[in-house]
Amino acid sequence: MREVRLPGTGAAVNVRTTPGPPTADAPVFVLVHGIGMSHRYLDRLHNELAVTGAVHSVDLPGFGRSPKPADGVTIEQYADYLGELLPMLSGQPVVLVGHSMGAQFVTETAVRHPEAVASLVLIGGVTDPARDSALRQALDLGRDTLKEPFDGMLIVLGDYVRCGPRWYLATLRPMLAYRTDLRLRDVCAPTLVIRGQDDPVSRREWGVRLAGSARLGRLLELPGRHLVQFTAAAATAAGIREHARTSAPGPDAAPIDEPVSP
Questions:
Q1: Do the strands 54-59 and 94-99 form a parallel or antiparallel pair, or are they unpaired?
Q2: Looking at residue 258, what DSSP letter applies?
Q3: Residue 249 pLDDT class (50, 70, 90 cuts)
Q4: Fold of 2-247
Q5: How does the average pLDDT of the chain come out, rounded?
Q6: Per-residue pLDDT at 250
Q7: Average pLDDT for residues 45-59, to the nearest whole number?
Q8: Where are the alpha helices (H) located in 18-164, listed in sequence order?
Q9: How large is the C-alpha radius of gyration of the chain?
Q10: 85 near 44, Cβ under 8 Å?
Q11: Cα(64)–Cα(252) distance, rounded to whole angstroms?
């Protein structure tokens, strides 16, 4: 991990980087965690993607090893952190991947900083407006926790402890209020929505809606639950690689599928 200081805001972001193969046309992947989390539960996906291209997994300000920002929490603020960071990580537009609340961060980044994003991937995206109360989210997360693998939950719980209840609650409010589906309408980048088939947090109807909201949206469902990028890392990486390939500009790019209807 290395600390990157953002020149505009002065915020600190910790980044885990793997260079990937030394090919000129290789994609660059940037992985963004969800609420209360860090890069650690993205490590399996990170390692799978590193076979194809450079991968950067971030701890955003206030999460993991990165100090908390002094100026509060909004989705827009975190998108601007990423808007500062991405050109520092890559000289080309990146494949921007977000899990859970990270899906909100990357969606807003693609709206506010479209020049930095070649394609977008939302894994286990939140928050379904039909289930946008803190109680419903807690119940859904509890149902998920009971059936996730023990090693995955150890990482999750450890990061939650590091995050602390006060900061978690501060980030929960904007997460519940943000309309990912509506903001996706303003995203120009091709968008892949991934969900675990048994995910009680990001349910199928919501996944279909997210994919249908994007201008160039597709839905990929894989065996697993909310931590599908952890339990099915190889399959998740394969889907992301294919999305990056078919989204790449140039004569060899495959056509993008039509958006999934809600």
A1: unpaired
A2: P
A3: low
A4: Rossmann fold (3.40.50)
A5: 92
A6: 52
A7: 97
A8: 43-49, 75-89, 101-112, 134-145, 150-163
A9: 17
A10: no
A11: 39
116-144 pLDDT, tens digit per residue, is 999 999 999 999 999 989 998 989 888 88
DSSP for 31-82? EE--TT--GGGGHHHHHHHTTTSEEEEEE-TTSTTSPPPSS---HHHHHHHH
Identify whether 23 is preceded by a cis peptide bond (ω within 30 of 0): no
Burial of 191 (0-12, 13-18, 19+ CB in 10 A): buried
Would you say how long the chain is, in residues? Answer: 262
Query: Is the overall model pTM greater than 0.90, yes or no?
Result: yes
Residue spans of the domains in the chain: they are 2-247
φ/ψ of residue 236, rounded to 5: -65, -45
Residue type, 236: T
Spatial separation of the C-alpha atoms in residues 210 and 214, rounded to whole Å: 7
The pLDDT score that the predictor gives to residue 261 is 35
**46 vs 230: CA distance, rounded Å:** 10
Taking a C-beta distance cutoff of 8 angstroms, is the pair 116, 87 a contact? yes
